[in-house]
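Researcher: We're teaching a course module on how sequence relates to structure. For the next exercise, students receive a sequence and then see the predicted structure as C-alpha cells, so they can try to spot secondary structure elements on their own. Here is the exercise chain.
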Amino acid sequence: MTTPSHAQPPAAGAPAAGSAAASQPRTGTRAAAPTRRRRRRRVDPVYYWFLVPALVLFSLCIALPAVMGIFYSFTDSIGFGDWEFVGLTNYAVLFSDPGMLGAYGFTIGVALVTVILVNIIALLLAIGLTSRIRFRTTLRTIFVLPMVVSAIIIAFVFQFIFSNTIPAAAEAIGIDALRESILANPHLAWISIVLVTTWQAVPQAMLIYIAALVTIPGDVYEASSLDGATPFQQLTRITVPMISGYVLVNVILGFKNFLSTYDIIVGLTGGGPGTATRSVAMQIFSGFENGDYAYQMANSTIFFLITLVIALFQLRVSRGRTQF
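Model: And here is the predicted structure for the students to work with:
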C-alpha cells in the first residue's frame, strides 16, 4: 500500500504563505485611491468668478465681431443697410488689386528690416547694461523711456525733426543730400518709419535680453577667458547660443507687432507721399471710411490669418526652449 504523503512543515524562520501574501502591499489599490480622489476633486467656485466674466467679454468684444467680420467679407455690405451674398468676389479682387499687394509688400518689408535692427541694437544694449559699468540702473531707466511714450506723440515729434530740424541743420552745415525732408521722398520715406519704429521698440526687446543674459553663469565666461576666447568669440559661441530661445521669441513677436504698425505711419507720413508708405492697417481703416466695408473685411481676414500663422509658428518653435 502506498502511504499518503504529508506536506513538509515550513523551515524555521520562514514566514507562512498566508502571512506573506497578506504582508504584500496592495499597490494597485493604493495608487487608484489618490486618482479617484483627484477625479472627484471639485473646482473652487472662485475660479469661475474670474473665468466667466473674462470669457463673456472676450466672446462679445473679440470673438463675435471677428466671426461677424468674416461673414460680411462674403457679402457686398457697406457697413449698414441691405447686403447680398457675393461669395469669394472680395477675395478675388483683393489678390488682383495692385494697391493692396503693394501695401502688403511695404508692410512685410518694413517689418523685416525693423525686426533685424531692433534685435541687433537691443542685444548690444543689453550686453552693455549687464556689464560692470557705472550708473547701470540709471542708464536702463533712460533707455526704457521710449517704451512708455505714446506712439502717436513720438511720431509727431520725429515728423517735426525730419521736416524742419534736419533740413535746417543740413542747410547750415552745407549737406545738400539732407536739405530736403525724406518724408517728401517716396523712395526714402520708409526709412523714417523704420527708424522711429526701431527707436520705440528697442526697449522692450532689450528688457527680454537683459532677463536672458542674467541667467548665464559667470563661470562660463571665466572659463572661456582662461582658454583664450576673445569677447567676439564669447558673444558668438556662448552668449547667442545660450539665449537663442529668447532671440527667437523677440524676432517672432517683433515681426508680428511690426506688421500692424499704424500710429507711427499716420503721425509721420500719413501714408504718403502718395501711397508710398500705406500699410495694410492703413488700407483697412481708410476702406472703412470710404464704404468698402465688406472688401476690407476680406482684407482683415487675410491679415488675421497671416498673423495667426506667425503666432502658431512661434508657439511651435519656442515650446520648451525658453523659460521666463
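Model: If you want an answer key for the exercise: The two ends are 86 Å apart (CA to CA). DSSP finds 14 helices and no strands in the chain.
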